[in-house]
Design brief:
The protein is of the alpha+beta class. The chain has 2 domains: 43 residues, no CATH class; 99 residues, no CATH class. Helices cover 24% and strands 25% of the residues. The protein is built from 4 helices and 11 strands, in the order H-E-E-E-E-E-H-E-H-E-E-E-E-H-E. Strands 1-2-3-4 form a 4-stranded antiparallel β-sheet, with no helix packed on it. A hairpin with a 7-residue loop joins strand 1 and strand 2. The chain starts with a helix and ends with a strand.
């Protein structure tokens, strides 16, 4: 009996259907474009998170059960977020702004014609709050909306001691808020 158990543990596992191919072994792969190995690890979940993975480069991915309007859904979040959705969750702010001022900034960018607003380099804290001072604004192609949006981005940047981008036909504008 002991011999049979030892053999069963040393045998190569087989697929239940011999017509199927054995899946390839999962190996870490270099991060696209960098050639560097970027390992992820399971981390302790923060309040309102079910599961959290963190990467050595500071990126993270979480899975949680929805609350409020998201009730009954699974919410997947990551460190580079659509700022429109991200800023409307409790405890998420831009720079040193209040949550309502943070929402107003993103809403104003959209009202002025931004195609999309992305929150980048998001910092997460033990109490469940999150903050970023980095926004990437996708610019519209139409000139009147584009000019108004870049002018507003310049005003916001100057409040922080930075200069906004000039219009040189770019698709994105970076906005630093801290």
């Amino acid at each position: 009996m002991l011999l049979i158990l030892a053999i069963s543990f040393t045998m190569k596992p087989r697929l239940s259907n011999p017509k199927l191919k054995q899946p390839p072994a999962v190996l870490p792969r270099p991060r696209n474009g960098t050639g560097a190995w970027v390992p992820w690890r399971l981390a302790a979940a923060r309040p309102d998170e079910s599961v959290r993975w963190e990467c050595v480069d500071g990126s993270w991915v979480t899975v949680s059960l929805g609350h409020g309007s998201e009730l009954g859904r699974v919410v997947v979040a990551h460190s580079d977020e659509d700022a429109v959705q991200w800023v409307h969750f409790k405890g998420r702010t831009l720079g040193e702004m209040t949550p309502s001022a943070s929402r107003n900034v993103v809403d104003k960018l959209l009202k002025l014609g931004a195609v999309a607003v992305h929150a980048c380099k998001i910092d997460s804290y033990e109490d469940g709050t999150e903050n970023t001072g980095h926004l990437v604004v996708e610019l519209p192609n139409t000139q009147p909306a584009r000019s108004a949006l870049l002018k507003h981005i310049d005003r916001l940047a100057r409040k922080q001691g930075h200069a906004g981008d000039l219009d040189d036909g770019q698709k994105y504008a970076y906005l630093k808020l801290d």
